[in-house]
């Protein structure tokens, strides 16, 4: 028996000192992709590259029981202002090690050894999945089209993140 699609409430956060709603290509791409897939946009925001500002928004979202997943874009590079992994990783109850590994493996076919510069990470915090993606729209497209569209779909077998959602807050 085929499982039914279950829409996920997803928040999207763009981390950037320079982007606005008018030119946020990566945030727009993620919004369009998740809505086209049948998911719900719980909230969308842009925040400056500041670990405390990033952490404040993500903390608010993980405290909101209506938000089931968060996708961030930007701030995963290695420059002095890139701090998304540092801002968010400390919030994780569990890290999803395979996400970053798989993202870099898939990216290698397109950007070759430049994928080594990606610090894409993912984890679970307070029962909420969090995925931190690079800021390029190409990287967001890769992450959504090759990983997230499948793992955020209850019909994907043998396993997916949606099946785990009811059990994420178990003690």
UniProtKB/TrEMBL annotation:
InterPro entries: MoaB, MoaB/Mog-like_dom_sf, MoaB/Mog_dom, MoaB_proteobac, MoCF_biosynth_CS. Pathway: Cofactor biosynthesis; molybdopterin biosynthesis. GO terms for cellular component: cytosol. It holds the Pfam family MoCF_biosynth. Keywords: Molybdenum cofactor biosynthesis. Residues 11-155 form the MoaB/Mog domain. Belongs to the MoaB/Mog family. This is Molybdenum cofactor biosynthesis protein B. It comes from Methylophaga lonarensis MPL.
């Amino acid at each position: 028996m085929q499982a039914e699609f279950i829409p996920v409430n997803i928040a999207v956060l763009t981390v950037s000192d320079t982007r606005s709603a008018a030119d946020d290509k990566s945030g727009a791409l993620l919004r369009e992709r998740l809505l086209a897939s049948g998911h719900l946009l719980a909230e969308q925001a842009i925040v400056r590259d500041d670990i405390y500002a990033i952490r404040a928004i993500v903390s608010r979202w993980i405290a909101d029981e209506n938000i089931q997943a968060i996708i961030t874009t930007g701030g995963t590079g290695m420059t002095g202002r890139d701090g998304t992994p540092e801002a968010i990783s400390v919030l994780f109850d569990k890290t999803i090690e395979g996400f970053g590994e798989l993202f870099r493996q898939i990216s290698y076919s397109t950007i070759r050894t430049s994928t080594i510069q990606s610090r894409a990470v993912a984890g679970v915090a307070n029962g909420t999945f969090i995925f931190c993606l690079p800021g390029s729209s190409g990287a967001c497209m890769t992450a959504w089209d090759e990983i997230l569209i499948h793992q955020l779909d209850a019909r994907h077998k043998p396993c997916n993140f949606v099946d785990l959602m009811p059990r994420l807050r178990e003690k």
